[in-house]
Amino acid sequence: MSQPDTMLSKKRDPLRLPKVALALFVTLLFLFPIIWMVFVSLKPESQPASSPLEWFLPPYTFVNYIDIIGGSDIFLWVWNSFIIGIITTALTLVLTSLAAFALSKMKFRYRRALFVFFIPGLMVPGEAMIIPLYEIIGALNLLDTYSGLILPMIAAPLGVIILKSFFDGVPNEVIESAQIDGCSDIRLFWNIVLPLAKPALAAIGILTFIGSWNNFLWPYLAIISESLYTLPVGIPMYNSNYSESYILPMTVNALASLPVIIAFLLFEKQIVKGISFTGIKG
Fold first, then answer.
1. Where are the transmembrane segments (predicted)?
2. What's the pTM?
């Protein structure tokens, strides 16, 4: 047998077709709820389906979308979620990177002991801190404000741990050489260490924004004014008015899903790299 035939036989995978078929099946399985949601949102409100197959059959209409846009505050909910998510992500990146840099590259007493305090932050569920958090924010008169929604979310011990591990990989020789040349700690952090941590910062930023966008419990408790509703709070409130109907609630969910789908299509590579970088599964 010639060498090209040998190389070709090594590269040929006898299970390639079943693997592709399985991948397509799993893809369709995950896409089916989105496809069903879109078809249901296009059905006329006055024509309910009597069988599951009828959800996918004509007639179709865009009147539901017009009614939702004109009769709900969905764009305000999207705007609130976006502003809160952006500010929360920016403040989280600033605080976690500074804390990780101090714990990794600055020498002071009890540095290692201080780092240990970040680890229990991963073990305590957020629901266990809701009552004391509510009392603290209430005592500061920050309930029903943007600040009250943002500030409790910027404490991210996972981000500190990830960035510290990343900063530990930066050679100390580079840090010492910069210090000998008269580089201050701020310039050392901003010009040398931080540019090397772009993959870690992207991972933390993506996970923080997604967590803020999907956060329901804390905004639900901390918001009183409808003008501050975020998407996770506004959609259930709107859907409760149509508990007997499928069409309009599905339409508002379809509209609310558009920003997330567009963001995923634009930042697909960064999201996948971020999740694989942090080792988060499931």
1. 20-42, 74-101, 113-134, 146-167, 188-210, 246-267
2. 0.79
Tell me which long-range contacts 136-139 makes (C-beta under 8 A, separation of at least 24): 137/222
Helix runs in the chain, H state only: 3-11, 16-41, 63-71, 74-105, 111-116, 120-123, 130-139, 146-150, 157-168, 172-180, 185-187, 194-196, 198-214, 217-222, 231-239, 247-266, 268-278
41 closest CA partner among 181, 225, 280, 242: 242
Domain boundaries of the chain, sorted by first residue:
76-278
Written as one string, the DSSP assignment of 65-107 is: HHHHHHHS-HHHHHHHHHHHHHHHHHHHHHHHHHHHHHHHH--
**108-158 pLDDT, tens digit each:** 888 888 888 888 877 888 888 899 999 999 999 999 999 999 999 998 888
**Type of residue at 1:** M
What is the spatial distance between Cα 152 and Cα 133, in angstroms, rounded to a whole number?
8
Hey, what amino acid is at 30? F
Select the CATH number that applies to the domain covering 76-278 from these four: 3.30.300.30, 3.40.50.1820, 1.10.3720.10, 2.40.50.140.
1.10.3720.10
Block residue for tokens 């920016």: 90
pLDDT digits over 205-246, tens only? 888 888 898 899 999 999 989 899 998 898 888 777 655 677
